[in-house]
């Protein structure tokens, strides 16, 4: 007992020592955890700031109630341009890089123009630029790219929806699609099942809870796009004044060269329209005569900036689609004083189109479904009956000569510089559209 008492009396600090040791250990763990967290955070930032180091994860956005449009303030412009000599930058898409490096200046490839080879032919030869002869016009390269947002009215042209998204994915920052109630197959359901999985970070499909029956396709497209705007823009956040909105039918394919120009340059007027090559069934069957006014053409794409939609049209999409916003001279004067000049601008012409309007460009079953829909709705713009027999749907339509008497077809050779989108020419799944 004496030894125990003596030992106990010689270690009066033992309980406090244990507490101190425990406290030091806990503090050490906390410090180590912060060091680990900080290193992970810095590593993530450093990795994300370096291009092509880590493959980004593209998460689907169809189920996000409010989508914040990604800002492009940190976008590296070397994705689009190459410095071939001191302070001489050339657009990669429009430049012969080998010759440019030899000559020390931008040498443009065919159908590209401008000091940095960034102006495609449809823009260069439009009434706005007049091949560079229009004085007082200055096209300026932006310091950072602007965002391009596309609104699509979708019916049964799924091949063309694929082509639109895959071709324009590099240039477009968001695709919004709208379809009617009970549309089958539904774009929304297809996306949920993995349709275009690698592109879903930019696809927001919206399904309308009602249907709109109308004889003319252009009126249907206007209605659907109006509904898409009313629903869509309220689901988006972080708009910028120079954001570009494009309104289109899925059968319209705007050239990715034109989209790239709109994304990277300033100085062009608005609102803008697109003169597309009017096609029927295939990319080599061009409609002539009054084809652009034909009932077969569902809708001509149009575009403007967010600033124009807000200031000139008061967010009223019907005013924009009818192009009545420019009639308000007081609004126009105020806008031009504070922002930039306004003028209707058509990009492209019948010889140098800004894209393709591929009407009824889908497989036979799709064409039959479209005709059935027209027949059900009482349309007179297409035949109310068809007999297949041993011929294809397309062959029957041609032989039955259902077209307007003023409408004829012209064969476009494969050698044409604007024959079809690059993805159509290079992907075997679209052979039925060019064979």
TrEMBL record:
Name recorded for this polypeptide: Beta-1,4-mannosyl-glycoprotein 4-beta-N-acetylglucosaminyltransferase
Highest taxon in the source lineage: Eukaryota
Species: Trichonephila clavata (Joro spider)
GO biological process: N-acetylglucosamine metabolic process
GO CC aspect terms: membrane
Swiss-Prot/TrEMBL keywords: Membrane, Transmembrane, Transmembrane helix
InterPro entries membership: Glyco_trans_17 (IPR006813)
TM segment ranges: 21-37
Any one GO molecular-function label of the UniProt entry: beta-1,4-mannosylglycoprotein 4-beta-N-acetylglucosaminyltransferase activity
